[in-house]
Design a protein that fits this description.
mainly alpha; 2% strand
């Protein structure tokens, strides 16, 4: 691949092979029945949940969420991250009612008969003050799910905004449109009219992430890494780590590890 002087494009080139492996995963085509889809969703919902903590970590780092309020140092970053939070935490459903994407996903799980009890146990445990690791145990989450979620919280715990931003951008927002397209095309064919909420969720993410969130996230990484080569290297390393964690999450589904509902 031809070299580029643009650091975002260079980073994308450096993670391209790992990203390609993930997008070519045959999991997307192995969902043949509603039972397959339920198993997939019972694993994937944890990634939908921990994404919000990744996003909120960025909001904490780049805006002011304390009282009394003071203006944060980066006005452009302030607006950028708040725009993303608005749509992720309080988008609208098919009826135009406010809802977070996580809550929308749980509703989609209920509609197709997937078991939402484990993820509800996790959220309840966190609300009670349990650690994420303990909450995963209470939910009886599969090993691949635990590894994925703990990777996310390791990134957050590093407390480096440029690293969190890279994980958010190249492990999530830049990846999701292409990943979800592979699901949408197959699900439309296999289950016409049976998965309205889930397809709405997928299509909404494709639309928002591709047209709005990914470009904003690229700008965020560019500003946070700036002209510091060590930051760009850390951004590359965490991006690969997050993509590899996603592949392991998908392998947990393909290999038939029991979901929390079946364990």
């Amino acid at each position: 691949m031809e070299a580029t002087s643009d650091p975002i494009e260079f980073l994308q080139q450096e993670v391209a092979s790992t990203r390609r492996l993930l997008l070519n995963n045959n999991l997307y085509h192995s969902i043949q029945t509603l039972a397959d889809l339920r198993l997939f969703m019972e694993h994937h919902v944890y990634a939908v949940w921990d994404f919000m903590s990744l996003l909120k970590a960025l909001q904490r780092d780049l805006t002011c969420v304390q009282v009394p309020w003071i203006p944060s140092a980066r006005p452009a970053m302030r607006r950028l991250i708040n725009e993303i939070v608005l749509e992720e935490e309080s988008d609208v459903d098919l009826q135009g009612q406010p809802i977070s994407h996580f809550e929308l996903y749980v509703r989609a799980m209920e509609e197709c008969g997937a078991d939402t009890a484990p993820i509800r146990r996790l959220v309840a445990a966190v609300a009670e003050g349990r650690t994420v690791e303990r909450a995963l145990e209470i939910a009886n989450a599969p090993d691949s799910v635990r590894a994925f979620v703990l990777t996310t919280f390791d990134v957050i715990a590093a407390n480096k905004p440029h690293v969190t931003a890279a994980a958010f951008t190249f492990g999530r927002e830049d990846l999701i449109p292409d990943m979800f397209r592979r699901l949408v095309s197959d699900l439309n064919t296999r289950f016409p009219g049976q998965l309205d909420t889930f397809l709405y969720y997928l299509n909404r993410h494709i639309e928002l992430d591709e047209d709005v969130h990914a470009p904003l996230a690229h700008q965020m990484v560019r500003e946070l890494c700036a002209d510091a080569p060590e930051r760009w290297l850390e951004a590359q390393q965490v991006s690969v780590r997050c993509l590899e964690a996603r592949m392991a999450l998908w392998d947990g589904v393909k290999l038939g590890q029991p979901s929390a509902a079946l364990a």
